[in-house]
From TrEMBL:
This is Putative metal-dependent hydrolase. Gene3D superfamilies: Metal-dependent hydrolases, Urease, subunit C, domain 1. Residues 62-160, 301-423 form the Amidohydrolase-related domain. Signal peptide: none annotated. One of its GO terms (molecular function) is hydrolase activity, acting on carbon-nitrogen (but not peptide) bonds. Pfam families: Amidohydro_1. It comes from Massarina eburnea CBS 473.64. Keywords: Hydrolase. The keyword Nucleotidyltransferase does not apply.
């Protein structure tokens, strides 16, 4: 932006507007006026100031931007490497390979992940950042997030770091001072990227003593961090202890918490989470691929939002997660009825519910429902515009726009994406990122410059090769066996 007010008119679209009861009404031939980073007017044939950029939305669906409540943006260079892996194989051959990423690799991976999400129509992401091997890694990741233009909660995750791979030797300093000093500085200096990038806290070290866990969470909260997130898959890899019970018993349900997956959650877990207003981030693609179990999306006892989680395993778009959440819920429920020699009289779940999981429920999960997640005057201009007449969308979009997005839309149909009042994708093409003097400083890209997607893709390919070469020099299987012993995984429970 040049300092003058950005004014955009979205002209003559079909606007999807949430009502107070969360139903979505589609308003045909409707304009939206965006001033600066907010929606300032919605109506037909709106008048607009001179100098406004006009985006013709004829034959387009104007939707709230998708909200991804669980992802790991840094992992772009690992795409396709874990396609056949279960959670266990992925953890040691993928997640734990973060030490093979230099800060420069982290910058490109993070930027690639954030832009992949924007391209897919996602405007806000909760980034479970388990790549905190060094302060430089964190600085590069936050700079890349800010440069990308996405709205993000960068959730700083204390991780177990390894001194060597073979033999696998964990660094005993699990909660190093430098990490918490850096987190304190970031928490007190936030937000970054013109207000788009906030600092959250990601935590998975539930094996640590209660007093230590509680004191760290309290400390982080005292620095002004408002969003906390944790993985919870009740199984023989991540453990059988109930994270919701620990959250309750440790007194940690005081502020915004997102529990990712919660597959295998008991009824008691569901009760704890729903009473505390805690959202589960369901990631059906990864949960199905990696042996985590059925998503909770349509169980009905917990509030659910959606996450792409492993953009290195499958598509980054939230529409895919909406679709898969519905399909898996119906498949598992209907199969039980078929096995009982009966036939389902009706399906469970609706496309409208799935749409809300990827929009307004995601906004509630991150505590921003008054600012994002729906289209309304005064809200932030985070908007995803779909082509309504593509071969995929035609006839579906005219019959029911919400169903068309959930059941039919692919990334190809995401025409234009606006985040915080700034157009980031136009007519199906990602726009270059623009790094200005005074932006978040990166050692990878210094000085004011524009970077096209082509240039970023080239840097990503070179970085991917560097990372792949480093991983290729390791005996991954040996490290994996050592990891199973360290994590006390019971081999008799592996099938
Ligand atoms: Zn995850």
């Amino acid at each position: 932006m040049t300092g003058s007010k950005t004014i955009i008119l979205l002209k003559n679209g079909t606007v999807l507007q949430h009502q107070s009861d969360d139903t979505v009404v589609s308003l045909p031939n409707t304009d939206i006026l965006i001033q600066d980073n907010k929606i300032s007017a919605i109506g037909s044939s709106l008048s607009f100031p001179s100098g406004a950029e006009i985006i013709d939305c004829t034959n387009k669906l104007v939707s709230p931007g998708m909200i991804d409540t669980h992802n790991h943006l840094w992992m772009t260079q690992l795409k396709a490497r874990h396609a056949e892996h279960t959670l266990l194989e992925y953890v040691y051959s993928g997640g734990l390979q973060n030490f093979n990423f230099s800060p420069e690799d982290i910058y490109w991976g993070q930027l690639g992940g954030a832009l992949e999400s924007i391209d897919a129509g996602t405007t806000t992401v909760v980034d479970h950042a388990h790549m905190t091997c060094s302060p430089d890694n964190v600085d590069e990741a936050i700079a890349a997030t800010a440069h990308s233009g996405i709205r993000s909660f960068y959730c700083y995750v204390p991780i177990v770091r390894y001194k060597s791979w073979n033999p696998l030797v964990p660094d005993p300093d699990i909660l190093p001072n430098w990490a918490f000093e850096q987190l304190e500085g970031l928490a007190k200096a936030q937000p970054f990227g013109n207000g788009r990038v906030s600092i959250g806290f990601g935590f998975d070290l539930w094996f640590l003593p209660k007093e230590l866990v509680v004191s760290k969470w309290e400390q982080v909260r005292s620095w002004g961090v408002k969003l906390f997130t944790t993985h919870y898959c009740k199984n023989h890899i991540f453990g059988l202890r109930s994270v919701p019970e620990m959250l309750r018993d440790y007194g940690l349900l005081k502020s915004g918490v997102i529990v990712s997956h919660a597959t295998g959650a008991s009824e008691e877990d569901g009760k704890i989470l729903s009473e505390a207003g805690v959202y589960v981030a369901a990631a059906p693609e990864v949960e199905g691929q990696m042996g985590c179990g059925l998503p909770l999306s349509f169980r009905g006892d917990v509030p659910v939002a959606l996450g792409a989680d492993g953009h290195f395993v499958g598509p980054a778009d939230i529409m895919s997660q909406m679709r898969l959440a519905l399909t898996l819920a119906r498949h598992s429920r209907n199969q039980k009825i078929l096995d009982d020699n009966r036939f389902p009289a009706a399906n469970i779940g609706t496309s409208a519910q799935a749409f809300n999981m990827g929009t307004i429920a995601g906004a509630r999960a991150v505590g921003m429902e008054s600012q994002i997640g729906s289209i309304a005057v005064g809200k932030l201009a985070d908007i995803t515009i779909f082509d309504a007449v593509s071969p995929t969308m035609v006839c579906a979009a005219q019959y029911d726009p919400v169903t068309a997005i959930v059941r039919h839309a692919t990334i190809r149909d995401v025409a234009t994406v606006i985040v915080d009042g700034v157009v980031r994708k136009r007519n199906g093409i990602l726009l270059p990122i623009s790094i200005k003097e005074g932006d978040m400083v990166s050692k990878t890209v210094s000085g004011a410059q524009q970077l096209s997607w082509g240039e970023i893709a080239q840097a990503l390919m070179e970085s991917r090769e560097r990372v792949a070469n480093k991983i290729a020099q390791l005996d991954i299987a040996a490290g994996g066996e050592a990891f199973k012993r360290l994590a006390q995984i019971d081999s008799s429970k592996l099938a």
